[in-house]
Amino acid sequence: MPVSRVTHQSEPNSSFTRGDHAKASLASKRNGKLRLMLQTLVQVSLFCLLAVICVQAEQYFDLPIPGSVIGLAIVLLLLLTKTIPEHRVSLGSAWLIAELLLFFIPPVVSVIKYQSLFENYGVQLMVMLVLGTVFVLVGTGFVVDRVFRFERRMNRQRAQALLASGMED
Amino acid sequence: MSIFEGTGSVLVGIFSLVMTLVCYTGAKYAYGKFKFWWLSPIMLAPLGIISLVLLLDIPLASYFQFSHLLTLMLTPAVIAFAVPIYRERHLIAKYPLTLSIGVVVGLFLGLISSWGLSKLVSLPPELSKSVLVRFVSTPFAMEATSSFGGVPELTAMLVLLTGVLGMMICEPIFRLAKINTSLGKGAALGASAHGVGAAKASEIGEEEGVVASLTMIFTGIAMVLAAPLFSQLFV
């Protein structure tokens, strides 16, 4: 992946004299915001490029896994194998996730087309949404609460066993 | 009678895109400044834009001409979730059982409840099919909904409503159901209210937020991967 090569992290240049350095750091503070924006832009563009490639691959090879998930797996693999360091993609990733709402505003706007559907079934729909949400909140919360207490106990016991076996040696 | 009559539709398209960006940024700015929940961009931005489209009588085709480019960004946004997964790999390694059970239980309860309730309440097929994926985050839901025969636009709206709903009712529910642990709250919010829930969870606590995000991402991925299978089961 070319992801690691493109963005430039600001490294203080060692050949600077002290005065130059102070001036440079002042300038870099002023440029800091611009540089961050540029880095974000480059990283977001790379995420977009990878998305295009993955979606094309999905269609070309007729894969059962969507291109987006293939892309996610690729980036995760590159991060886990340290092929790309996290800071090369973290700005772009943070931006894309933070602005998620913006990306699905257009489809939400098009519910205007289905206005009559919401007018006719609005009440039933809301009842259903509320009941379903309560069900999932309580069910998931209840189960995970119990499993978490169990796993936390297991982790502690394992830690204690490790400690005890360490003392025997 | 549209005020845009006679105007080139390209101009209307550009205007729509700019309007969307301005409303979104404005709502974000207002929320950052005043922090009232009803100013939350997730409520204000879509409502504001829908009102403007209706008031100015903008044809939907013109609205979408350029605005649909924004929706294309949902694919790179899914890829971007690789970074938070990587960042929280230590938490995943510490509680693999709790997290995966949270994902499986959340996914199945979401599907079963939507499916069962849509059988009880008679809804037209567009709605009852689109409602099935409403608990997973929008980029995943939009990807998965076609397997179930859902309509992407309706799905986006239902996902949004579900998220806002989960955010609003979670705290009294946790108190009543005595859900006290950080992982319990986080998983419940991530599974029931996706991104909105994750934002709410990080208000409750840091660990809650991380767990909610992870649960949201993994339920989303699982939903997308298993949608063809689930669509056979939940007809």
UniProtKB/TrEMBL annotation, chain A:
GO CC, any one term: plasma membrane
Topology of this chain in the membrane: Multi-pass membrane protein
InterPro entries for the chain: LrgA/CidA
Residues in coiled coil: none
Transmembrane segments: 36-57, 63-81, 93-112, 124-148
Top-level division of the source organism's lineage: Bacteria
Subcellular locations according to the entry: Cell membrane
Family annotation (Pfam families): LrgA
Keyword terms of this UniProt record: Cell membrane, Membrane, Transmembrane, Transmembrane helix
Positions of the UniProt region annotated as Disordered: 1-24
Sequence ranges of Polar residues compositional bias: 1-17
Stated name of the protein: LrgA family protein
Organism: Shewanella benthica KT99
UniProtKB/TrEMBL annotation, chain B:
GO cellular component labels: membrane
Membrane spanning stretches: 6-24, 36-56, 62-83, 95-117, 154-174, 210-230
InterPro entries, A to Z: CidB/LrgB
Keywords on record: Membrane, Transmembrane, Transmembrane helix
Lipid bilayer topology: Multi-pass membrane protein
Principal location class: membrane
One Pfam family recorded for the sequence: LrgB
Name of the molecule in the record: LrgB family protein
Domain of life: Bacteria
Record keyword Aminoacyl-tRNA synthetase present: no
PANTHER family from the UniProt entry: INNER MEMBRANE PROTEIN, PUTATIVE SEROTONIN TRANSPORTER
Record's subcellular location: Membrane
